Structure formats: C-alpha cells, structure tokens
Amino acid sequence: QVQLVESGGGLVQAGDSLKLSCASSGLTFSRHAMGWLRQAPGKEREFVACISWSGGSTYYSDSMKGRFTISRDNAKNTVYLQMNNLKPEDTAVYYCAASALEDYGPLRGPQLTDFGSWGQGTQVTVSS
Q1: Spatial CA neighbour of 99 closest among 49, 62, 61, 60
Q2: Residue 22 — φ and ψ, nearest 5°?
Q3: What is the pLDDT of residues 55-72, one digit of tens each?
C-alpha cells in the first residue's frame, strides 16, 4: 500500500520561507517522478512542481518558478519543496504525489492525471 506523508506546513507571513517534506513507503520511490500539487479554498487542484526519478530534471508551474525548489533524496524515499518569498496567494493545502512516469520529455510535461497516489496534504497559510 502506497503511503505519502507530508509535513512542514504552517502559518507564515508574506515573504517568509517554508520547506515541505514528503516521506513515502510502499512504492519503489526511485522509479517514479514525484510532484507537489496544491488546492486553494474554492479552487481546483493545480500543479506546483515535479522532479524526475533521478532528480536530474525539474518542472515548475510558471507562477512558482524562481521561488520554489523541488528536490529529492532517493536514499530516504523523501521529496522536498522549498518555498521562498511566499505570497498570500500561495495559501493552499499542498499535496505530494507519485507520477506513473519516471520522467518527462520536451513534448510532454507533467499533468495532474499522471499522479495516481496522493498524500493527505499539509496546510500552508500565508498572511499578508
């Protein structure tokens, strides 16, 4: 049974930083690209970032590019999301998810439907 457990969320002020972690079990972690997605109140779930199985490739939503950094430690079966210069519009529940793919190519980037296993989420609230 796949388990993804996020941690690191909290209440911060605009401009602050947070680092989210996601520990996985029940899957061959190094054979999956891993992603972070988020859902704000009243909005649909959206893609945040994704990292290939090796960590050699990363993908970001345009609105997070330059502020967020995704990384992974395959020895610890853990994926991270470093979030800097947080904005009130970043307030959401952040989910860790495993992609069905190991990596992506130039013709096709990560899509929400690629992520079949999700964690329970961690709340990030950014006050202005």
Answers
A1: 49
A2: -140, 115
A3: 999 999 998 889 999 999
